[in-house]
Amino acid sequence: MAPTRAVPAGADDPPIQPTERDPSTYTKRGRVKRDLYDAELARLQEQLVMLQYWIQSQGLKVLVIFEGRGSAGKGGVIKRITERTSPRIVRVVALPKPTSRERSQWYFQRYVEHLPAAGEMVLFDRSWYNRSNVERVMGYCTDDEYQEFLRSCPEFERMLVRSGIVVIKYWFSVSFEEQRRRFESRNAEPLKRWKLSDMDLAEHELYVEYSMAKDTTFQFTDTKQAPWHVVPSDDKRAAHLNCISHLLAQFDYEDVAPDAVTLPQMKDVPYVRPPMHEQTFVPQLW
């Protein structure tokens, strides 16, 4: 039996690993192989396109929330979801820091305007859960604001569900060791260093405090109407496939993709275009 890793009090539990690893599927490090990942991702992305047509045809309102630690892989899976879907149907919301005006509003107010309308799926790259995680740990909110969030958030999400919005929440869980490896990788490459912010460094140092905040968040907001779904993400490829597979499984969708159309012929209109040499072209380097 492999030795168990000691986990700091309040830290995320280490992902449960399968007892056997198929060498044709996994690398020696136990990660999903690239060729299998590429093939399975292509299949899942095709299904995501089918799902978007279904959401549009049925007038569904779908909200998907992605939360978790820095470098846990939220952005990666969002990128894979949107890679082949239409931005008019599947759109991403990643809000910046609130303005002074927004800070004076009801906390949920700036998020409400981004909620999905009929026929849309909205992906929140972080959401109102900033309050019970980042803001709580970093001291950016008062204790009264934090307690009010824990009281009001479950009711707010129940309101969304009652209004007909499908609410799906994912928490990406990454171990301290893997997070450190990813941060070190960013730090070592100048082209990736912009991804390593002061907030990331503070979060890494306060890993246990963030774990405690996450546990309290789950205690209050892991409800029957809007449950949390944890995605172990030390293996990014597996996390992408597992999350997208789970997302697709939440819908009993059918293939309503439009049939191929016949492209029209160009209409013959009497028109003489201006000389091409009068236009400025990009230099043809290739």
From TrEMBL:
Pfam families: PPK2. Residues 33-256 form the Polyphosphate kinase-2-related domain. InterPro entries: P-loop_NTPase, Polyphosphate_phosphotransfera, PPK2-related, PPK2_PA0141. GO terms for molecular function: polyphosphate kinase activity. Its EC number is 2.7.4.-. The keyword Kinase applies. This is ADP/GDP-polyphosphate phosphotransferase.
